[in-house]
Design a protein that fits this description.
- By secondary structure, this protein is α+β, with helices and mostly antiparallel strands.
- The protein has 2 domains: about 170 residues, tt1808, chain A (Alpha-Beta Complex); about 60 residues, no CATH class.
- The chain is built from 7 helices and 13 strands.
- It has a 6-stranded mixed β-sheet with strand order 3-6-8-9-10-11, sandwiched between helices. A 5-stranded mixed β-sheet has the order 2-1-5-4-7, sandwiched between helices.
- It is rod-shaped and about 140 Å long.
- The model has no long low-confidence stretch (mean pLDDT about 90).
């Protein structure tokens, strides 16, 4: 009896929430129940939930590095803003509707639809979408490399980047004149955005992830990465050169003063020698009975 009472009073922990990936739900239910789900990140694809996969450390580092150079760019060239933290947008395509939450997105100032500070969704079409690829399953890989590529192309996202920390599926696309995605052709190893002036980066640096200080001295990045660092470094270098010039000037003055001192000492020695010679001569003349003053 006592055991049963104890069991009735004991509160068992709730069962762990399970993913509802693939569940058929209406768009209204998605917005109400799943868009801001506490345990899972869901997108919605034409009536079905699609869980966004988690990343790994390698993918997280690449994502952070790329976010950092984007932030540097917009700090130097405020032509738009970066959107992250799973702020979704609705893609009303001719044959389907989906709701996507890009890992990173860009809204240009020229975009007709702006994002208000309190918006939890974006009602326009992002100018650039960036996805950090997960290798958790082939399904997840195909979602970013094929399915979302078609959706973003169809809805009018002007550029689409796929960042793959393993380097297998990394790709960069832009819309051509008829709205179809074509590869952004690198100049050697350097990708340059058509939409963002001066935004460029090395593909190899996605995996090397150089520091901001290193990039600030690199011709590829120094146009937008830490320009104040470059100015401060140039100022410090100028001050160092001025200090060196002042040191050399002071050293030259010291050497000139030393040479003058040595010259004066030599003159003093020569005068002393001449006086000594004159005194010896006068002594000899006096010994001969000749007064030096009479000569």
């Amino acid at each position: 009896m006592e055991a049963r009472a104890w069991q009735e009073e004991y509160e068992y922990p709730p069962e762990e929430e399970k993913s509802e990936d693939g569940l058929a739900v209406s768009e209204a239910d998605y917005w109400e129940k799943y868009y801001n789900h506490l345990d899972f990140k869901y997108e919605w694809n034409n009536g079905y939930l699609e869980e966004k996969p988690v990343s790994d450390v390698k993918g997280s580092r690449l994502y952070q590095w790329f976010s950092k150079i984007l932030e540097c760019f917009f700090s130097s060239y405020p032509v738009g803003e970066i959107i992250n933290l799973d702020i979704g947008f609705r893609l009303a395509l001719p044959n389907k509707t989906s709701i996507r939450k890009p890992d990173l997105a860009v809204i240009l100032n020229s975009n007709a639809v702006t994002a208000a500070p309190d918006d939890a969704t974006y009602s326009g079409i992002y100018d650039i979408c960036i996805e950090s690829l997960s290798h958790s399953s082939l399904k997840q890989i195909l979602r970013d490399t094929s399915q979302k590529k078609k959706e973003y192309e169809g809805i009018g996202v002007k550029e689409y980047y796929i960042l793959d920390a393993r380097g297998k599926e990394t790709a960069f696309f832009r819309q051509n004149r008829v709205g179809k995605y074509v590869d952004i052709i690198p100049a050697g190893d350097v990708i340059r955005s058509d939409l963002l002036p001066e935004f460029r980066f090395r593909i190899s640096d996605l995996y090397r992830q150089p520091s901001l200080e290193e990039m600030a001295e690199d011709d590829v990045y120094k146009g937008y990465v830490l320009p104040f660092y470059q100015e401060a470094k140039s100022l410090a270098e100028a001050e160092k050169q001025n200090a060196e010039r002042e040191r050399l000037r002071a050293e030259a003055e010291k050497q000139n003063a030393e040479r003058e001192r040595q010259r004066n000492r030599i003159l003093d020695l020569e005068l002393a020698s001449e006086r000594h010679k004159a005194e010896r001569l006068a002594t000899k003349l006096r010994a001969l009975g000749i007064s030096p003053e009479d000569i």
